[in-house]
């Protein structure tokens, strides 16, 4: 099978123009098929504050009411997505921007209200990914750039965790490609001490993950990121890494996630 890199970039990098340009330049040097998924929580929160919309979070995930959905749709599927596509085109990378609704590429179901009601948040599954259409785009040497907005096929948009989208895309495409899933953010990888860049944890597996979580070394937004990483590995994704955005093209950089 042909290799495919599925790369997710977080909002802290998107908000830093210098680091973002560095990332996109390095991303453009990666040969072969690739897909980019982006978040953008920081920008959405900043714009929301100006509009009088306060962010609502639970364990690193956003709770989305109707006005928040309007906000994140504008920011994620509009402002951020199109800026990324334009900057990749500047790097001579033939990018094309999508939400999950475009070409019906990613459908989702509303997350059921249990202990926490996440509002207009969509959960995605492998069956909701149109892999044939996506493979067709890759065969045209296009670079899909996904915002974390999905839909239910009945006219309802959903806010969806970008890490989850990246993981589900990786799992779905692993049936036809040799997939490497890479999460990029502003640290060297997963750190034992978030304030010490030299405390990189080179490898995390299911065993040491539990102990790291228990003593608080892994918390907040890193928890769902690692959960989606382990899920991807259990569905034939070849490799998962968490890496500093500027090192995206370095195959040895970052934290390697193992079963």
UniProtKB/TrEMBL annotation:
Chemical reaction(s) catalysed: N-acetyl-L-glutamate + ATP = N-acetyl-L-glutamyl 5-phosphate + ADP
What is one Gene Ontology biological process annotated in the Swiss-Prot or TrEMBL record?
Answer: L-arginine biosynthetic process via ornithine
Which pathway features in its UniProt record?
Answer: Amino-acid biosynthesis; L-arginine biosynthesis; N(2)-acetyl-L-ornithine from L-glutamate: step 2/4
Q: What's the main place this protein lives?
A: cytoplasm
Which GO cellular component terms, listed alphabetically, does the Swiss-Prot or TrEMBL entry include? cytoplasm
Q: Which SUPFAM superfamilies match?
A: Carbamate kinase-like
Task: List the EC numbers from the record.
Answer: 2.7.2.8
What are the GO MF terms of this UniProt record? acetylglutamate kinase activity; ATP binding
Looking up InterPro entries in the UniProt record yields: AceGlu_kinase-like_sf (IPR036393), AcgluKinase_fam (IPR004662), ArgB (IPR037528), Asp/Glu/Uridylate_kinase (IPR001048)
Give UniProt keywords alphabetically: Amino-acid biosynthesis, Arginine biosynthesis, ATP-binding, Cytoplasm, Kinase, Nucleotide-binding, Transferase
Q: Where is the Aspartate/glutamate/uridylate kinase domain?
A: 5-243
Give its localization.
Answer: Cytoplasm
Q: Name one Pfam family in it.
A: AA_kinase
Query: Where are the residues marked Transition state stabilizer as a site?
Result: 8, 225
Task: Kindly list the positions annotated as binding substrate.
Answer: 40-41, 62, 159
Q: Write out the similarity annotation.
A: Belongs to the acetylglutamate kinase family. ArgB subfamily.
The entry's function note states: Catalyzes the ATP-dependent phosphorylation of N-acetyl-L-glutamate.
What is this protein's record name? Answer: Acetylglutamate kinase
């Amino acid at each position: 099978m042909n290799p495919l890199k599925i790369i997710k970039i977080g909002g802290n990098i998107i908000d830093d123009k210098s680091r973002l340009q560095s990332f996109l330049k390095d991303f453009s040097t990666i040969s072969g098929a690739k897909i980019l998924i982006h978040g953008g929580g920081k920008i959405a929160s900043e714009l929301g504050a100006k509009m009088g919309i306060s962010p609502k979070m639970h364990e690193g995930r956003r709770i989305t009411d109707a006005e928040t959905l309007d906000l994140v749709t504008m920011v994620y599927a509009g402002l951020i997505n199109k800026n990324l596509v334009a900057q990749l085109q500047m790097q001579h990378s033939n990018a094309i921007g999508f939400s999950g609704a475009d070409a019906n590429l990613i459908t989702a179901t509303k997350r059921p209200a249990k202990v926490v009601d996440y509002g207009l948040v969509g959960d995605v599954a492998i069956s909701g990914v149109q892999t044939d259409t996506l493979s067709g785009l890759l065969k045209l040497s296009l670079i899909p750039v996904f915002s974390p907005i999905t839909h239910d096929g009945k006219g309802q948009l959903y806010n969806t965790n970008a890490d989850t989208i990246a993981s589900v895309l990786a799992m779905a495409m692993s049936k036809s490609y040799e997939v490497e899933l890479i999460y990029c953010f502003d640290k060297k990888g997963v750190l034992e001490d978030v304030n010490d860049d030299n405390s990189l944890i080179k490898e995390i597996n299911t065993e040491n993950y539990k102990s790291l979580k228990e003593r608080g070394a892994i918390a907040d937004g890193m928890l769902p990121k690692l959960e989606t990483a382990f899920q991807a590995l259990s569905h034939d994704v070849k490799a998962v890494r968490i890496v500093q955005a500027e090192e995206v093209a370095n195959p040895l950089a970052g934290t390697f996630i193992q079963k």
